[in-house]
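User: Um, any thoughts?
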Amino acid sequence: MTNDILEPGMLVRHPAAPEWGIGQVQSRIGDRITVNFPEAGKQVLDSRNVALELVMIPS
């Protein structure tokens, strides 16, 4: 998945840090994505270094 589709409010998982839990995208500005994870808090990630996994919650 490409990080280009991510928008605020979307739920994601960091593939290298599953212990962080499911995070919510706060913002995406250029290559910087800010995600709030329940177990790691707010993280600013470089989208050139990590491909976040989109989490789909069944309705």
In short: Residues 6 and 28 are 7 Å apart (CA to CA).
